[in-house]
Amino acid sequence: MTNTVFLQRIADLYDEFKQHDARQSDRLRRYRNIEAESAKLLAMLVRTQQSKRILEIGTSTGYSTLWLAEAAKTVQGRVLTLEINAFRSAQAKKYAEDFELEGFIDFWVGDAADYLKQAMEPFDLILLDAERGSYVSYWEDLKRLLQSSGSTLIIDNVISHPAEVKPMLELIKQDEHYMSSILPVGAGLCMVVVK
């Protein structure tokens, strides 16, 4: 069960991140973390699916990483999180240490496309929350990593940025091996599962 101390600390951290973003006029300087309700849903999915191998594409400062790791801890799972910005990844690692969750997270710094091209072992749950213009180029590699029945891909920002994710959602719809549904949670999540 998610403990009260974690919930209070993560709520405070979320507020801190939101305040930071509100002060930034440049989009790229914002942390752009996932919405609180979306992060909570992801943690619930990890628990209900007993997701042992979790991949996060786009760490930012690690807000969603903390939720995923806290849930992974309860199911003896692990999170691998990919981030192109070394400074952001280091920030996320520090928060993981502060929350005593670093033992459940592997941090990988670099272009997600490079990691995805060489990755072979499937994941139980993948969160895609990075630069949306790259999503289409990830699809073939993501399919290889979603081989297991019950493997789930979650794509964030599908309601808040529909035009930017439309090409990816169209690709998924055209693939007979996958089912998808839009969940009106946070900025909008698309849940994709292997049929």
Automatic annotation (TrEMBL):
Transmembrane segments: none
Pfam families, per the entry: Methyltransf_3
Alphabetical list of CDD domains matching this protein: AdoMet_MTases (cd02440)
Signal sequence segment: none
Keyword Methyltransferase: yes
Key words, A-Z: Methyltransferase, S-adenosyl-L-methionine, Transferase
Gene3D superfamilies: Vaccinia Virus protein VP39
GO terms of biological process kind: methylation
GO molecular function: O-methyltransferase activity
Alphabetized SUPFAM superfamilies for the sequence: S-adenosyl-L-methionine-dependent methyltransferases
UniProt name for this protein: Methyltransferase domain-containing protein
Natural source organism: Acinetobacter halotolerans
